[in-house]
Write a structure and sequence with these properties.
The protein is mainly alpha-helical. It is built from 23 helices and no strands. Keywords: Membrane, Transmembrane, Transmembrane helix.
């Protein structure tokens, strides 16, 4: 059956109406992947020299053993964000008399055809054949090879399992990413333990006990079996939906939003859209990752001045507004015609956007409160820029969203996906980033920084108080652009 599946996939590709565009995209992607693999190979070939400079007091094999688990943590984080799920390609066979085991085995096999599974070979094997094979026995070399391959396979199926579970419950993805981040912070930020030490404790023993290589092999096999069982149980769409309905209540039903009526319902639907789709979920994930952005500036205060606090505060509390808000209508492109003829009041639609931005920005402000470690002034500036984002940047971003008529297909992945991105997205960054500094810089040059910050806060508060006026203006602007938006969203 595998040869039949491959044959049908090739036919489906060559018979598609967008074959020329698909070929061009695949060629560009292939060139990019080859370039990245070449860079990885250069690093892998020089890995022994790099380790000597990074850990001059350690033996090469010891330092090599210490970085392996750290690599696989970052590898898992990248896979969660970039690796695609091979699920849609077998759906046409679900109604045919084909064994489930054949379909699931095909999915499992095709998932291994990922560029992430090539990286360990290119990055670590040069070191193994340059250093380990000459310093130790062939059995030790085989043990390292088996352990490295097994952990790559484990990461492959673990990432796929998490992403499949996240399709049912978006919080699974955020919890998984947060766990990986906390694990790395526990070492590098809080110094609770040493990932290098843990890694060496296992891989270092492969030198004296090569049989320990069976441990990653077994956990890789267990992860494969878990994926196999999960896919087999949920292969048919009706089974998946029924199990979802009976297992738990939707995680996006928030009773707190019911008190806001139709606006609350629209916000709840928006949250569902964000958590259930890869592209929109990536905007939320990137926002969480940028919560660490301040560490670049605040840990080196001599290199950056007071202006950096204004920029970082605006960026961290408003990154979701920028990433998600500029595609305000594009997220609903597939059913935008339905919105046009529905009974949804567009004023409520805009109010829901403002409420969503307020909720996420408030959470972002709370997540950045630990930066008070660098001084209470940092937290004060974060609060000022939070107010600025809610009062000014939300209106600016929604104004530019009225001019973005590029559709986004939510069924597609987030990695290397540029749908919906145009010149407007690059132009919108200028007023968002420059406007507060137009107020701040003159007062800073005159030595009245606090007055400049006070005016920024006052303008933000004024924008919040006059929000109804700006919503009315945005509705009027939308009414002049809605048919242009609808026409653009119909072009696939």
């Amino acid at each position: 059956m595998t040869s039949t599946f491959i044959s049908h996939e090739l036919k489906a590709f060559w018979r598609t109406k967008n074959k020329g565009k698909s070929i061009a995209v695949k060629i560009i992607m292939a060139l990019l992947i080859l370039y990245l693999l070449a860079c990885v190979f250069i690093v892998g070939f020089a890995l022994d020299k790099i380790l000597e400079k990074m850990f001059p007091k350690d033996e090469l094999v010891a330092s090599f053993s210490g970085i392996l688990i750290l690599y696989y943590l970052y590898d898992l984080l990248l896979r969660l964000q970039l690796q695609e799920l091979p699920t849609l390609r077998v759906q046409p066979y679900l109604h045919l008399p084909i064994k489930r085991n054949s379909l699931v085995s095909y999915l499992a096999a095709t998932s291994l055809l990922s560029v992430f599974n090539l990286w360990p070979f290119i990055l670590f094997f040069p070191f193994i054949f340059k250093v380990i094979i000459f310093d130790h026995s062939a059995l030790v070399t085989l043990a390292f090879i088996a352990a490295i391959i097994a952990l790559a396979v484990f990461n492959n199926y673990l990432a796929l399992y998490i992403k499949r579970k996240a399709n049912l419950n978006g919080w699974v993805f955020l919890v998984a990413v947060g766990t990986v981040i906390l694990l790395t912070m526990g070492d590098f930020s809080w110094h609770l333990y040493s990932i290098r030490g843990i890694s060496f404790a296992f891989f270092g023993k492969l030198i004296t006990q090569p049989a320990l290589a069976l441990v990653p092999v077994l956990i890789a096999a267990a992860m494969y079996y878990l994926n196999f069982i999960y896919l087999k149980q949920n292969l048919y769409l009706e089974d998946l939906n029924s199990s979802k309905a009976s297992a738990y209540k939707s995680s996006t039903e928030y009773p707190l939003l019911n008190r806001f009526g139709s606006v609350g319902d629209l916000v709840a639907n928006e949250i569902k859209l964000i958590l259930r789709n890869k592209r929109s979920r990536s905007a939320l994930t990137m926002g969480l990752l940028f919560m660490f952005y301040g560490l670049i500036f605040y840990t080196n205060p001599k290199a950056y001045g007071e202006w950096s606090k204004v920029f970082v505060g605006m960026f961290m509390t408003g990154i979701f507004i920028i990433n998600y808000g500029q595609f305000m209508y594009s997220w609903q492109a597939s059913h935008f015609d339905g919105i046009l003829v529905s009974k949804v009041n567009f004023t409520d639609f805009l109010k829901a956007k403002y409420m969503l931005f307020t909720m996420v920005s408030t959470v972002a402000l709370l997540l950045t409160t630990p930066y008070v470690y660098f001084g209470w002034r940092v937290l004060m500036i974060h609060c000022i820029m939070y107010v600025w984002n809610l009062g000014v940047n939300t209106t600016i971003i929604l104004y530019f969203a009225n001019r973005n008529h590029r559709r986004i297909d939510l069924s597609k992945g987030a990695s290397f996906n540029w749908e919906g991105v145009g010149a407007t997205q690059f132009l919108v960054s200028f007023p968002l980033l420059v406007t507060p500094f137009i107020i701040y810089i003159p007062f800073s040059l005159l030595g009245h920084v606090d007055i400049g910050l006070g005016i920024i806060a006052a303008v933000g508060i004024l924008g919040i108080l006059t929000r109804q006026f700006w919503i009315k203006k945005l509705v009027e602007d939308y009414n002049t652009k809605r048919y242009t938006l609808a026409e653009g969203f119909r072009n696939k």
